[in-house]
Amino acid sequence: MRSALSGQARERLEQELAALRDRRDRLAGQVRARDRVGDQADEAFSLRLDDDIAAMDDRIGELSELLASGRNVETGTHGVLDGTRVTLRFADGEVQTLQVVAVPEEIPAGQEDAMVTFDSPLGLALSGRAAGDTIAYSAPAGVVRAEIVSLEPPD
Predict the structure, then answer these.
(1) Would you state the torsion angle of the CA atoms of residues 149, 147, 71, 15, taken in this order, to the nearest 10 degrees?
(2) What is the pTM of this model?
(3) Across the strands, what pairs with 115?
(4) Low-confidence ranges of the chain (pLDDT < 50)
(5) Strand 95-101 to strand 85-90: parallel, antiparallel, or no bridges (unpaired)?
(6) SS3 73
(7) Collapsing DSSP states into helix, strand and coil, what is residue 29?
(8) What is the DSSP letter of 108?
(9) Res 71: pLDDT
(10) Using the 8-state DSSP alphabet, how is residue 69 labeled?
C-alpha cells in the first residue's frame, strides 16, 4: 500500500502532530493547575489557554485525518503521489509544468503557480491518467482542458 503522501511529507506531518500533542498536554496541565488556585487574572489566562488548546485540537484533527486517509494508489482511490511532476499543454498551446503536493502549507512562498494540490480539481483530474491523455477540470473561469505531456512520479 502506497500513501499519496511522500515519506518525507508523512514524516514532517507526524513530527508536527507529535509536537502539537506534547504542547497541548503541557497547556492542559497548566489549565488544570490554575483551575485549583487563582484569581480573575488567572481565570482570564486559563480562558486564553483554552482557546489555544481548541485551536491545537483542530490542527491535530486535520493532521490525524490527513495521515489516516492513506489514499492508496494500488486500490485506485488516488493515483497522484505527493511530489509528482506533471507537464500540461493547454488548448491555447501554453505548456506548463507543475508539481503535485499533498499539504498546501508546504508550498514555498512565491511558488504557488507552479504547484497543485492532489485534491484540487486539477489534481483530481490527473488521478489514473497518463501522458497523452486529455483531462478536463473546473476552474473559476470555467472548464479547462489540457493534454498531459508528461507525468513523472517522485523518485
Answers:
(1) 60
(2) 0.52
(3) 99
(4) 1-3, 71-78
(5) antiparallel
(6) coil
(7) helix
(8) P
(9) 47
(10) H
